[in-house]
Design a protein that fits this description.
Shape: globular
Order of helices and strands: EEEEEEEEEEEEEEHH
Distance between the termini: 41 Å
Number of helices: 2
Helix content: under 10%
């Protein structure tokens, strides 16, 4: 897997034969804005015929250990384990897709309408993982039907460690000058997500396909 990076929190863009083929993100801060103390997690988004390819390259901590769910299947409350997460948001409607990927092969897909308001979860993914002693890589295709209409913002997170050694990391963290005394990590602070546009990947004339899932399965809000 080949990645390119930016140093300012913005995605790096990969080009091949004059065409854009990836957006790469490096998670290099904790949720509250401090630099991470290990090789940063890398998240790549690239075009696919059926949706968006999401690839992860990350350190493998094996902490917490394997959640013991079947690899390749959804696992409830996967956020309590070692995961890399991506959030795709329509900031006008607060509809968003949350994707969680675990180095042991489990995954969790949630659809939310309104902050933290999950209306569908445990959706299927074809998720491939390769894992060594100190590093893991994962790859999945996110189908268009999982994305809410008109995605406008994005954030990505990584979590590892147990109990008081739990580490929460964010692509776009809470600015340190806005932290409140006693504030805890919260990945659903949608106001800190940054602008995102699929046209960067698919071209100026491209329009996001409609999702039957979001049109038919109306959120209960």
């Amino acid at each position: 897997m080949l990645f390119t990076f930016s140093q300012d929190g913005h995605p790096s863009l990969g080009w091949l034969a004059g065409c854009l083929w990836s957006m790469d993100f490096k998670i290099e801060h904790t949720w509250d804005g401090f630099p991470v103390t290990h090789e940063p997690v890398l998240v790549r988004l690239s075009p696919s015929d059926r949706g968006v390819m999401m690839e992860v390259s990350a350190p493998f901590f094996n902490d917490p250990p394997d959640p013991l769910g079947e690899p390749g299947k959804p696992f409830n409350e996967l956020w309590d384990y070692e995961v890399v997460e991506a959030f795709f948001l329509n900031d006008r409607t607060e509809q968003y897709l949350e994707v969680e990927l675990c180095p042991h092969g489990q995954h969790l897909v949630l659809l939310l309408s309104g902050r933290r308001n999950v209306w569908k979860q445990g959706l299927a993914l074809s998720f491939q993982v390769s894992r060594g002693e100190t590093k893991w890589e994962g790859k999945t295709c996110l189908p268009w039907c999982y994305f809410p209409p008109n995605v406008t913002k994005f954030n990505s997170f990584a979590v590892h460690g147990s109990k008081d050694k739990r580490h929460y990391e964010a692509l776009y963290p809470v600015p340190q000058h806005e932290l409140q005394q006693g504030q805890k990590p919260d990945f659903h602070l949608l106001e800190y997500f940054k602008p995102f546009n699929f046209n960067t990947l698919f071209g100026e004339e491209w329009k996001q396909p409609e999702s039957d899932l979001w049109l038919i399965e109306k959120p209960d809000i």
